[in-house]
Structure formats: structure tokens, C-alpha cells
Amino acid sequence: MSNRKKILLVGDQPGWAFHNIMNFIRKNLSSNFDLYFDFVVYHPAFEDPNKEISSKTNQNFIFRKNLIFNKTPVFRGLEYQLVKKLNKLNLLGFNEHGKFQRVTEDNYYDLVVYLDHYFPFDGDFSHIQSNKIVQGTFSDVFPPRKLFRIPDTGEIKPIQDGNEFCQVFLKSADALLIGAPAIRMKYEKFFHKPILFANMAYDEKIFSPKHTIKNNKFVLGWTGNPEREFKGFYSIVQPVVQELQNSGFNIELRTQFSGSLNSLADFWQNVDLAIIASEADAGPSMFMEASLCGVPSISTTIGMPAYVIVDNENGLFCSRNVADFVEKIALVIQHPELLEKMRVRIRKDYIEKLGVDVQIQNWENLFNQLIYA
Fold first, then answer.
1. Distance of alpha carbon 295 from alpha carbon 303, whole angstroms
2. C-alpha–C-alpha distance, residues 118 and 120, integer Å
3. Angle between helices 285-292 and 336-354 (to 10 degrees)
4. What tens digit of pLDDT does each residue of 289-327 get?
5. Full set of structural domains in the chain with CATH
6. Of 220, 224, 289, nearest to 257 (Cα)?
């Protein structure tokens, strides 16, 4: 273990999207690198000025595993030592305090990967030392549309200039991690260091097509957190379905706001078309899930859909307005041969560009390029 390079991956909090990326890396690259994990939620620097109010997200704010013998001191002590030992051997996904965290005793790493650009500022990681730093971005809006707490001054304001954003938030980064290939062109004018694409990938055995008996209804699918307005669930998705139903189409919207990976696979295996109305997104995860299950998407031109979809061949692009979504979904319903053509292609096309083997290689290349540069 001592010969392997030490890499720290930093997410926002356990149970959220970045945790899935960390688990993917852990599962597929632990034999090549000595991997460690930490979260901003365990080292908060200040209140997040963009914190969204949502009962669904608040449920996961502190995501812990309880030790079995928590109320029995002798057994608790033994269990504590066992968990600590197993954690040091990288055999557990949580530490002796119940946190999904693994860190070095000396706080020194060959490489630190902050999975989003603001993590070094929202969290206090002043105790961390490393040879190289990577900061990520998983939004294809540039500069990101949010309020920023400016380092040093503490001023809270938006940043609209790309050069200012990179100078303020990426000045210490040795490379930029992007969550979708299309993001590169937005940053390369202002960030003159390596820009590298890598993301997670779902298990292609769990997420696979399932041939089911068709019912009479055309089923649209949507998963995610509806409270995040940039996803457009309330402003786009629901009005689209209502208008189609009012026009006489036998259509149903099925949703899942949370759940296990297995439940998400089951969900998509019973959907005809995924509807993606995000304003900005490096994923979204629902595109990954649906594509692997052989479900084409109708999507705004964002993130991974922009990289994979060939319009009218394996999916559909759509302007971000209700009228365009209604028109194109109606077309698909009226022409089932179009849906079938897209269904036949989407899984294969997705795996070729964004499948498990591709993403494992992307992460391995990223780590090696920065560690050995």
C-alpha cells in the first residue's frame, strides 16, 4: 500500500451525487491508487449562501452509519478498533465515527480532487497538504449562476466574468475536472491548464433493458430532486404533461425523487421516454440511467445528452420551453417507429462514449497525468 500514490477525493456530503462518483472510483481504482475520502459537511467554513430549502435534501444532511454496539462500552470499544483497522485497509466505506470518510494521519496526499470548484472555499481544508490539486465543475453554465463568497474579503456576490471567476476560484488548481465534454469549450479561453473529463458510470448489468408488455399509455419518466429549479420539473415538465393530456394524448408522467440504484433501474425499465428540461447540468443522472435501460431522452442541449444524442436518431433535442416539448413528444407518440429507432440505438451509443470502461480509463488517465507530470 505504501508504494501506491495517495489521492484524496472531496465531495459535499454522503448520500449525494458526488458520493456516487467517489464510490465509482473506489470500486474500480482502489487496486491502483491509495484512495481517501472526505466531505465539506464535516469541515464547514460558513453557511452556504445558496442553500436550498427542501425537505428531501435535508433528510440526507448528516448521513451516518451507527455502530452495532453503540450502547455497550466494552463491545463498542472493540468494534471501534476493528472498524478503524478495516478503514485503514480501505475495506469499509465509513470510519469509526460513522462517517463515510477515510483520511491519512499526516493529512498529506499526492493529489487532492475537489469534485466541485467551491469545495476548498465552502469547507475548511487548511489542514490538507498535497503535491497537486484538481477542482471540478459539473455545470455547463459558465460562470456558474450562483452567489459566491469571495475568498479573503468574505463578500457575497455573483460573478459574471469568466476570467474573474477563474482568477478567484481556480487560481490554485493544477487542472480542471469537467463532468461533461461540452464544458471544455466554456473554460479553455480562461483556464490555461489541463482540462480533463471524467465522471461516474452505472453498473451496466443492473441498468439494462427489460422487455415488458406495453400498456396503452405513453409513459414519460423523470427522476431527481424537483426542488432544484434549474431542473425545470415544476416550470417545464409538469406543464408539458398537463398540456398533452388536455390535448387528448393518453400520457402518464412517472417520477422518482429518491431511491436505491436497483429501484431506479426498475423505474426506467417501465418508461417510454425520459424528459430532461434542465437549464444546466453536466449529467443529469437520469440520462445515464435511462440510456442504459434502453430509454431514449428528449432533452435540452446540456451535459451528457449534448455529447451522446444524435437528434432524431437516438434521442431528441428540444428548446427549453413548454411548446417545443409538447410538439416533439406528440410527434413521438404519433410515430412509434421513431421511438423504436431511438430505443434500438441509445444504450449502445451511450456505452461507447460514457460506459464503465470509458470512465475507468478517464479517471486513471487523469490521476496518472497529474501525479506523474
1. 17
2. 6
3. 110
4. 999 999 999 999 999 999 999 999 999 999 999 999 999
5. 6-64+99-201+356-371 (3.40.50), 218-354 (3.40.50.2000)
6. 224
